[in-house]
Amino acid sequence: MTFEWSAIWDALPSLLEGATMTIQITLLGLIGGTLIGFLSGVMTTYVKVPVTWKTSAIAVVAVIAIYVSLTLASWIGVHFLGSVPDWAWLVLQAVIVLGLLWRFSAYIPMALSFLAQLYILLIRGTPIVVQVMFIYFALPLIFGWRIDAIFAAIFTLIINSGAYIAEIVRGALLSVPKGLKEAGQAMGLPFYKILAYIIGPVALRRMIPAMGNQCIISLKDSSLFIVIGVAELTRQGQEIIASNFRSVEIWGAVAVIYLILTGIIALILKFVEHRTQIV
Questions:
Q1: Which range marks the domain in which residue 198 is found?
Q2: Using the 8-state DSSP alphabet, how is residue 135 labeled?
Q3: Which tens digits make up the pLDDT trace of 224-267?
Q4: What is the DSSP string of 176-230?
Q5: CA distances from 47 to 57, 105, 114 (A)
Q6: What is each CA distance from 196 to 33, 91, 187, in whole angstroms?
Q7: Rg for the chain (alpha carbons), in Å?
C-alpha cells in the first residue's frame, strides 16, 4: 500500500472547513463555560454549603414542593381562573414568585451554591457523549423542543467545560493567601472590589496553566460530537474516507490539524503566562 499525498490535497478544503467548525464550537463553548465556571467557582468557594444527606434531602423536598406548587397553580388557573386574562395571571404568578424570593432572600446564596455543587458533581460524573446525546435526543422528547445539532454541541461544551473551569477557579481562589482578603476587608473595600482588584489578579495567574489544559481538552472533546452528525473536523474526515477509502492519509491529516490547533493554543497560553508572571 502506497501513501498518496494527492488524497490529502484533494481533501484539504473539506478538512479545513471542518477545522473551522471545530474552532467555532470550541470558542463559543469555552466562552460560555468560562462565564458559568467563574460564577460557579466563586459561589462554591465563598458560600459554604456542605453536600450531605441532610442538605440533599432538603433540596429534594424543596424541588418536590416547587413542582407541586406549580402543578397546583396551573390546575387552579385552568379550573377557577379561566376567565382571568393571561396577562393578569402572569402578573399574579410573578408577584408570588417575587414575594417568595424576598421572604427567603437570606437562603438564596446557599441555594445557588448548593445547585452549583450539584451541577459540578453531575457534569463531572457523566461522559460528554452521554450529555450531548441527552441534550440532542432526550430533551426534544421531554419538552418538545427542536434542537439544532450545532447548538446542542455548543451547549454541551458550555456546561461540560463550565463544570471543570469552576473547579479550576475554586482551586485558584483557595490558593490565594487569606491575608489578602483580610487586608481588603481592613481597608473597607466591598467584596466585589476585593475579588476584582486583590484576589482576582493573583488567582488568574495561577489558573492559566490549568485553563490552557482545559482549552486543549475541550478542543479535542469536540470530536465526540460526531455522534450527532456535527460537521466538525472528525466528521469531515470520516465522510472523506467513506468516499475515497484512504484512511491512513485522511486520519493522518486530521491528526496533524488537531496537533497544529492544540500547539497554537499552547503557544498562546505560554505567551500569556510569560506576560503575566510575577517578577
A1: 5-276
A2: I
A3: 898 888 888 898 888 888 888 888 888 999 999 999 999 999 89
A4: S-HHHHHHHHHTT--HHHHIIIIIHHHHHHHHHHHHHHHHHHHHHHGGGGGGGT-
A5: 19, 14, 9
A6: 19, 37, 15
A7: 24
DSSP string, 53-120: HHHHHHHHHHHHHHHHHHHHHHHHHHHTSTTS-HHHHHHHHHHHHHHHHHHTGGGHHHHHHHHHHHHH
Q: Is the pTM of this model over 0.70?
A: yes
CB contact at 8 A, 38 and 170: no
Provide the percentage of residues in the chain whose pLDDT is more than 70. 92
Torsion angles phi and psi, residue 62, rounded to 5:
-65, -45
Tell me how crowded residue 175 is: count the other CB atoms within 10 A of its CB: 11
Place of cell 481588603: 184
**Number of independent structural domains in the chain:** 1
The number of residues making up the chain comes to 279
Q: Is the dihedral of CA 234, 156, 43, 38 positive or negative?
A: positive
Decide: residue 89, CB within 10 A, 0-12 exposed, 13-18 middle, 19+ buried: middle
Dihedrals phi, psi of 277, to nearest 5 degrees: -70, 150
Q: What is the CATH number of the domain that holds 108?
A: 1.10.3720.10
Give kind and range of the element (H or E) at residue 164: helix 149-175
If one counts every other C-beta atom within 10 angstroms of the C-beta of residue 193, the result is 13
Q: How confident is the model at residue 180 (pLDDT cuts 50, 70, 90)?
A: confident
